[in-house]
Amino acid sequence: MEYNVEKYWLSKTEGNGRESYEEHFICSFRMCAIYQKQEDWQMLSVHFQNIFDKKKYDVRVVLPKYSCMNQKWKDQLEYMDHFYMNLAGEDRYVGILKYVQDGITFYFIDNEYYFNGFAPYDGDPRWNIEKFAFFSKAVLSILPVIDFRPELIHCHDWQTGLIPVYLDNFRFLGEYYRGIKTIMTIHNLKFQGTWDTKRVQDITGLPPYYFVPDKLTSYDDANMLKGGIVYADKVTTVSSSYAEEIKTPFLRRKAGRADAGQVGKPFRYCEWNRL
């Protein structure tokens, strides 16, 4: 089946975004917006207030608790709970902290092994793959602990691309995760989160079923952004103009494997049939 951008395009920031957001979330009274970058949550809370009626929508945000966060913010985080989650064959600590700003709840996932350092990203692509595989799996794993089952999860860029994939896999664990919808927003197609398929399979613990060309793999590598595109219920970009731009042959060729330092290979068609 073919899809087009017009069918799946949902403006994120055009104007105040109110019309496009309400059009899509009119049936979604609870939503969990997942961000992988540390942003000024004061600005985010104001942004959400301008878009969502808090009496109608329960919007919450999940971010990593980076050690490079400003100390004044870290001092205001409230510890909620912690548990251990298996990733890469080991049990990893998952701490949950909370901060409420203007009625918007922000959750921070704590793990110093993954989120320590002077910046959210470093130069090791393999490490970044494992770091954000941990974050993606932890996002879904904390939901029963915080007693919040969203109707919709909004994921941003390749760092959260595994959330729709894990969600598909988690549905086999029981009813809790079934029926949750996802949106995947592409911010920068140049970066896709690609690495050796066998290594990514070992890290994520996902079964071989997912590591095939019509799902997670692209040119023999695993591609986290592609996984998000394939398994998300809707796919969006940051603007309508960017949605058109990334459909051009030039951008598709340049985006092929840019984050692996190999520019020039275009996406296979199956990676674009959701746009």
Feature tags:
single chain, 275 residues, alpha/beta, Rossmann fold, 8-stranded mixed sheet, 3-stranded antiparallel sheet, 11 helices, 23% strand, disordered C terminus
Walk me through the structure:
- The protein is of the alpha/beta class and 275 residues long.
- The protein has a single domain (5-271), classed as 3-Layer(aba) Sandwich (Rossmann fold), CATH 3.40.50.
- Helices cover 33% and strands 23% of the residues.
- The protein contains eleven helices and eleven strands.
- The strands form two sheets. Strands 3-4-5-2-1-6-7-11 form an eight-stranded mixed beta sheet. The chain has a three-stranded antiparallel beta sheet with strand order 8-10-9.
- β4 and β5 form a beta hairpin.
- α6 packs across α7 (162-170) and α7 crosses α9.
In a nutshell, what does this entry contain?
33% of the residues lie in helices and 23% in strands. It has 275 residues and is of the alpha/beta class. The strands form 2 sheets. Strands 3-4-5-2-1-6-7-11 form an 8-stranded mixed beta sheet.
- In whole angstroms, how far apart are the ends? 12 Å
Strand order of the largest sheet: 3-4-5-2-1-6-7-11
Main pleated-sheet profile: 8 strands, mixed
State the helix count: 11
Strand tally is 11
Radius of gyration: 18 Å
Quick one: CATH class?
Alpha Beta
Q: How helix-rich are the residues, as a percent range?
A: 25-40%
